[in-house]
């Protein structure tokens, strides 16, 4: 049902395919974030046109609204959204700690109040799996205990140990052949803790392995270092997914360190805020400098925004027209999708290092 096929490597970079019952996921690959069953502002066909093979949904958000039983009654996440490719759902581990109002963590569960109506919700490893099964995602994530960095070492160790125990409970609860379960490595920025955690989870039967606890505000170099000493301890025959990452530079730096899959709100969130990703770095469309610019964002981009001029896009944002965020979200996801396609080609050609350096040079020093 689920199989990771390693096609080739170039240094630390891997070119592969993650085979799933709903189709193949080309790696390295980027997953657009569809938190509430929609990639904000885009139709599912527009998302497909960006080259995405798999999209992400969120257990925490969908549990609160419209509710996992409602999603199930509407035929499950795929049918409800109209996406018949693979869907990965995050477990709620991160959202409870980043969005959930006052939460309490015991061995049994993470308890929080809904940020929507204040209802008290108890998220156990078993309940997270139950929700993800009701949503019908192809890949489920274990429930983990994510803590904000920086944190005292004792707190990092405590959350790490709980995350491993919760991963085992998720493994026991996840009994569907058609739904993969990915483990999540924690351990802060500590080399020893990360390697211990990766090794312990690698000894358990998971279909994939995520590196969690990063992209939480740490300096990019610390993220890259941490990924670099974690991936060698993950199984080479399973996909590796770096959660919540990142900028185009983050993607290439982490692909160089053995990461296969990514998700991040940046392309869509920044798109809604008039920031465009291009090979020359970020373009802030509200800037007056674009007022009379007749050029598209990028000459060779097939997206919906690049049929128009920068001047028009700026006008849409200045006027507060809803088309602005829609067009720029499409461009940014197309940029990420094309970047991943170019990366896969570069790895196959044994040119990844040259390709990465050329991209970094084009993006400049403070790219995004
Ligand atoms: C809260 C919100 C919407 O999620 C995004 C975004 O803000 C923001 C805030 O600032 C940026 C960095 C741009 O990204 O951080 C989030 C992206 N970083 C991230 N997502 C994660 C999801 C995770 N899920 C689980 N189960 N376990 C994890 O350890 C985990 C770690 C993660 N790290
Ligand atoms: Zn474009």
Write the layout of secondary structure elements.
Blueprint: E1 3-10, E2 13-20, E3 23-27, E4 29-31, H1 44-48, E5 55-58, H2 59-64, H3 68-73, H4 77-81, E6 87-90, H5 93-98, E7 101-105, E8 110-113, E9 120-123, H6 125-135, E10 139-141, H7 153-173, E11 180-185, H8 191-202, E12 208-211, H9 220-230, E13 240-242, H10 248-255, E14 261-263, H11 266-272, E15 275-278, E16 281-284, H12 310-318, H13 323-348, H14 352-363
Helix pairs in contact: 6-7, 7-8, 11-13, 12-13
Bound molecules: the ligand CC1(C)O[C@H]2[C@@H](O1)[C@@]1(COC(C)(C)O1)O[C@@H]2CNc1nc2cc3nc(N)[nH]c(=O)c3cc2[nH]1 and zinc ion.
**Percent of residues in beta strands?**
15-25%
Helical content band: 25-40%
Could you list the spans in which at least 5 consecutive residues all have pLDDT below 50?
Answer: none
Record the strand order, biggest sheet. Answer: 4-14-13-12-11-10-6-5
Distance between the termini: 38 Å
The outline comes out as: globular
Number of strands: 16
- What's the tally of helices? 14
Question: Could you explain the architecture of this structure?
Answer:
It is a single chain. 39% of the residues lie in helices and 20% in strands. It has helices spanning 44-48, 59-64, 68-73, 77-81, 93-98, 125-135, 153-173, 191-202, 220-230, 248-255, 266-272, 310-318, 323-348, 352-363, and strands at residues 3-10, 13-20, 23-27, 29-31, 55-58, 87-90, 101-105, 110-113, 120-123, 139-141, 180-185, 208-211, 240-242, 261-263, 275-278, 281-284. The longest helix has 26 residues, at 323-348. The model has no long low-confidence stretch (mean pLDDT 96). The chain binds the ligand CC1(C)O[C@H]2[C@@H](O1)[C@@]1(COC(C)(C)O1)O[C@@H]2CNc1nc2cc3nc(N)[nH]c(=O)c3cc2[nH]1 and zinc ion. Zinc ion (ZN) is lined by residues 297-298, 301, 303, 305-306, 331, 334.
